[in-house]
Amino acid sequence: MRPIWSSASINEGIKIRLFTTFVVPTALYGCETWRHTERIAKKLNVFQQRCLRRIFRISYLEHKTNDKVLKRANAHQLEAIVTERRMRLAGHILRMNDNRHPKTAMRWTPRNGKRRVGAPRITWRRTFIKDLEDSQDPNIRWADAEQIAADRRNWRSLVARCAGMHGGN
């Protein structure tokens, strides 16, 4: 995409539409299942800023903040989009019947409540629980989330709050 971003004959609006139509979905493919780590979030946001700065021809020497670049592109941070998609997937899973495999996998805990040695400390489930805690209502627990997910309108508002806490505009 570098030749397109640097092309002077293509309008910035078209470049942004190409970015949001092709690049973002490709970069975020399957992100609903990713666990959240600061390293992944930073890589996503750096990638997004690098692309947008190339599109707008903004040098790092110009000292434009990332927020100004995002506002100019009328975009959200990719980290917020990932959080929103993860929460939407969780809502689908929480609304499933108890005998469905995704719901069983989501509720599963290791024997004795401890992971085996060498297993990742940050799991998708722990990421989801942290997203719930990071929402504007930190009193939401797992059982509360299942009740909220049953009502789609309330779940959508919770998803929007969680995405907003992760940098959504």
UniProtKB/TrEMBL annotation:
Q: Which PROSITE patterns match?
A: PROKAR_LIPOPROTEIN
| Superkingdom of source | Eukaryota
Q: What is this protein called?
A: Endonuclease-reverse transcriptase
